[in-house]
């Protein structure tokens, strides 16, 4: 809770769930990344929170942008970013959207297979291409599947093919899993990248860049290392595996940049039991999975929740959302501890919700309004 957010909440009545973002905290987080990794460019992952105020702030600070769609590219440009500061990093793109991005001036594209490489060659001739590697994301709270990336041997073949298609074989990318608490998880991927750089160099293909991806965590209920620890570990791995020929590097933070800059204010709609003799209470909030808390799927992300009863006796509850859908339950497998004194109609504050909440709530399921995002 920052003073700016507290002031807004005190001045504004609660009529629906609302995400409040502190822009000063976003700026502080951006500057922390720059200090921790001064030789690495920051490409903000727009998908984490595309609020125009956040994009404009970061554009003014000199940030680059990781876009997953043509619309995100347009949003970054509208916020003041030039096309040379935008990478089209989704490996799954319509060919016509690649062509539209190329017309806007975007010249860096990610891919992980022959068909996508061929699309880029046809629609964005002469562009830089970055091949994404498979990475298991071991240990991450929100691990990634095999949806993105290819095996190193395949990446070598694809990058060797790129120049013949009129493209620039620019570099490699990977992602160690979202909310990655272990700074050393970048080491193995960087070792693989260094080998591919050497192998392709022997074929006359001189790559220049490694995209270190995202994965930098926000602070939820578990303690996590600060960004300085990640910078130190990653810089150490770069020196170990690349020696004196360290490539250009970029990072794509989303959660780590905006996650702890936001708080959702929510209201308790109902407190009930399922049996007269069951001590377990069910606490229903006016926000749930479909209102912005989709990352509670499988209880992967456990948000800190604050009430006005701090210090009172705690008891386990099942937390659920307001919709008429049975999967709209936030925490049941591992019940959440809340004060026994909470009552219907009271406000709760769900902390560290600045990332992947408002974007997941873009539709009004069950007639509930999409989550509003206010920047202060």
- The radius of gyration over CA amounts to 22 Å
**Spatial separation of the terminal alpha carbons:** 13 Å
Mean pLDDT reading: 95
The description of the largest β-sheet is: 8 strands, mixed
What's the quaternary structure here?
A: single chain
Stretches with pLDDT under 50, minimum 5 residues: none
Structural class: alpha/beta
Q: Tally the beta strands.
A: 16
| CATH topology-level name of the largest domain | TIM Barrel
Under CATH at level 1, the class of the largest domain stands as Alpha Beta
CATH architecture of the largest domain: Alpha-Beta Barrel
How many domains? The number is: 2
The CATH superfamily title of the largest domain? Alanine racemase
Beta-strand content bin: 15-25%
Summarize the topology.
Layout: H1 3-11, E1 18-21, H2 23-36, E2 40-45, H3 52-61, E3 64-67, H4 70-78, E4 86-88, H5 95-104, E5 108-111, H6 114-123, E6 128-132, H7 152-161, E7 168-173, H8 186-202, E8 209-211, H9 227-242, E9 248-251, H10 255-258, E10 262-272, E11 281-285, E12 305-306, E13 314-320, E14 329-339, E15 347-351, E16 372-375
Parallel strand pairs: 1-16, 2-3, 2-9, 3-4, 5-6, 6-7, 7-8, 8-9, 11-13
Antiparallel strand pairs: 1-10, 10-11, 10-15, 12-15, 13-14
List its traits.
8-stranded mixed β-sheet; alpha/beta; 29% helix; single chain; TIM Barrel; Lyase, Ornithine Decarboxylase, Chain A, domain 1; 16 strands; 376 residues; 8-stranded parallel β-sheet
